[in-house]
Specification:
Blueprint: H1 2-18, H2 23-71, H3 74-79, H4 82-124, H5 126-137, H6 140-173, H7 175-180, H8 184-209, H9 212-236, H10 242-260, H11 262-284, E1 305-314, E2 320-330, E3 334-339, H12 345-352, E4 360-365, E5 368-369, H13 375-380, E6 382-385, H14 396-401, H15 409-418, H16 422-426, H17 445-459, E7 463-467, H18 475-489, E8 493-497, E9 509-514, E10 517-522, H19 524-529, H20 534-546
Helix pairs in contact: 1-2, 1-4, 1-10, 2-4, 4-5, 4-6, 4-10, 4-11, 5-9, 6-8, 6-11, 9-10, 15-17
The structure holds adenosine-5'-triphosphate and magnesium ion (MG).
Length: 547
């Protein structure tokens, strides 16, 4: 439509102004107004359509990215910080698609208007048109130089932005440590350092991109000057009408304006392209262990045993955490696992739950390698109470029911009773509907632990894993909860990790982990027979202390 308006100038100048044909004096301005009205409507609807498509694509990308994030294995989360995750799985979709659509629209509009305007140029004078277009070719070279530099700087800038996000997260999650250790000045200093870095990169980007606009202005000015020189001569020598010349210049100015401004949104376009590229990389990432989005898997009915066959494991290549572990737990029995801190107890249960995969040997359930059991089924078969339990923001009831979405009101009540939560919940005005805060921040350590135990109880799965499940409880609560755990463990195959040996009173046998392997195993009685053994010494130390 820009082109049509420019084209109208030719009859207007030639017929109305120079030809004194006033019949057209009203017609052409009216047409211009009507056209610009139509153009306004089109601009509105194209902006709407563009925003719709942009938001829609962003929405779909975010859904797909979140799905990918949930599919990633534990190793991925070990390696990635929260800032990078927020950048790659959320912000990139926004920067990539929303901005790209905005710039894409401008780009497409410009291509179409350039085609129209080029036609007008050629209609008016092909010689001048050639000259004008020849100049346009030269804008390619500066763009190429800036593009390379910007890609590098954009990535650097994103990286620093991600590090800043980590700072915010740490202030939120570590606020108690920050306040009590007086780390405010320290954190501030570190953060200022990072902000200065971001500032420097941002200024470098400005330095490297902002010369583009003046250069474009210069190239366009040369084009325009050449056209004026040649065009003036063509008009004076009668090869071109004045109207054609005015129309030509109008079309050329309309075409050159966006080119002059290319520098302005170049940074945004580069950031979008980098983000889109990264989204592709993110979506192509492989996760070593499969993820299950299935909610109604059936648990295994364990009838024989869980076997660790020559299991070895290392988080980092060359640094073994477990070596040649061999043992089996008969169905319905309970094994206690003890050992020094860092001895690999938690790692052992990570392997059983396939949070990590063994690097040697195999774990079998009823003779079947756990790697060949569908992951949803495997996980449905176990209830784990972790050393650092995670509660989700939501109510106590919601957190308990995360163990089993099909759990009934009765199941929740039973779990609450057996986990010795009844008194605590009765003391809350909102009862089970009390919010627990982000990560359960509003509860005490012991309360969180008991909710986690209740969650494991409603799950009602054949395998129960307790990793220091009662470490946050005092002796009396522990004695109470011990009963609860005994209820939880009834008819189940259980692995209990404990530092407090009293927790192990009901286990069938005990494994002592030391130096990456099983140092001792047997019933408590058998282990105590060797007074120099690790277990006997641990027992001695705790016994003396409590005495
Ligand atoms: N995600 C990880 N990446 C790399 N190394 C790890 C990881 N988790 C644990 N480790 C290392 O593996 C070893 C065993 O850790 P693990 O958590 O299994 O010990 P643990 O016996 O449960 O100790 P604790 O009694 O203190 O809970 C430790 O040396 C630890 O530093
Ligand atoms: Mg542990």
């Amino acid at each position: 439509m820009d082109a049509i308006i420019a084209a109208f100038l030719r009859p207007y100048v030639d017929q109305v102004i120079l030809g004194h044909n006033f019949a057209n004096s009203l017609f052409i301005p009216t047409c211009i107004i009507l056209f610009s009205l139509a153009q306004g409507l089109c601009i509105y609807f194209s902006a709407y359509a563009n925003a719709w498509v942009g938001n829609r694509v962003t929405l779909d990308a975010k859904k797909e990215l979140f799905h990918k994030l949930l599919s990633m294995d534990v190793c991925f989360f070990d390696r990635s910080d929260s800032g990078t995750i927020a950048l790659h799985f959320n912000q990139d979709a926004e920067t990539g698609f929303k901005n790209l659509m905005g710039n894409g629209k401008a780009f497409i509009t410009r291509i179409f208007s350039s085609i129209g305007l080029t036609v007008v140029l050629f209609i008016n004078s092909w010689k001048l048109a050639f000259l004008a277009l020849l100049t346009v070719i030269f804008i390619y070279f500066p763009i190429r130089i800036v593009r390379k530099k910007m890609r590098f700087l954009t990535k650097k800038n994103d990286h620093s932005g991600a590090s800043a996000t980590v700072f915010y997260n740490e202030v939120c999650q570590g606020n108690r440590t920050i306040i009590s250790y007086g780390l405010q000045a320290n954190r501030e200093r570190h953060f200022h350092g990072l902000l200065n870095e971001i500032f420097a990169v941002s200024m470098r980007m400005t330095r490297h991109s902002n010369w583009l606009s003046p250069v474009m202005h210069f190239i366009v000015a040369i084009g325009l000057s050449l056209v004026l020189l040649l065009g003036g001569w063509l008009v004076q020598s009668g090869h071109m009408s004045s109207g054609a010349f005015v129309s030509f210049i109008a079309a050329l100015l309309l075409m050159y304006t966006p080119i002059k401004n290319i520098g302005n949104n170049f940074v945004a376009v580069q950031a979008s392209l980098v983000a889109v590229e990264r989204i592709q990389e993110t979506l192509k990432m492989n996760s070593t262990s499969p993820a299950a989005f299935e909610e109604d898997a059936e648990p295994i009915c364990l009838d024989s045993e869980i076997t660790f066959r020559d299991v070895s494991f290392e988080y980092q290549p060359g640094q073994p955490v477990l070596k040649n572990i061999n043992f089996s737990i008969p169905a319905g029995k309970t094994v206690g696992i003890v050992g020094h801190s860092g001895g690999g107890k938690t790692s052992l249960i990570h392997l059983l739950a396939r949070l990590y995969d063994v690097t040697g040997g195999a774990i079998e359930i009823d003779g079947q390698n756990i790697q060949s059991i569908p992951i949803a089924r495997l996980h449905r078969s176990m209830a784990i109470v972790f050393q650092d339990n995670f509660l989700f923001s939501g109510t106590i009831r919601e957190n308990i029911l995360l163990g089993n979405f099909k759990g009934t009101e009765e199941d929740v009540k039973t779990a609450v009773r057996l986990a010795y939560l009844e008194d605590f919940i009765a003391s809350l005005p909102l009862g089970l509907e009390t919010p627990v805060g982000e990560r359960g921040i509003l509860l005490s350590g012991g309360q969180k632990q008991r909710i986690a135990i209740a969650r494991a109880m409603v799950r009602n799965s054949p395998i129960v894993i307790l990793d220091e499940a009662t470490s946050a409880l005092d002796n009396r609560s522990e004695a109470n909860i011990q009963e609860a755990l005994n209820n939880l463990m009834e008819d189940k195959t259980v692995l209990i990790i404990a530092h407090r040996l009293t927790t192990l009173s009901r286990v069938n046998f005990i494994l002592v982990l030391n130096n990456c392997g099983i140092a001792e195993s047997g019933t408590e009685e058998e282990l105590l027979k060797n007074p120099n053994g690790i277990y006997a010494q641990m027992h001695q130390a705790q016994f003396n202390k409590s005495e």
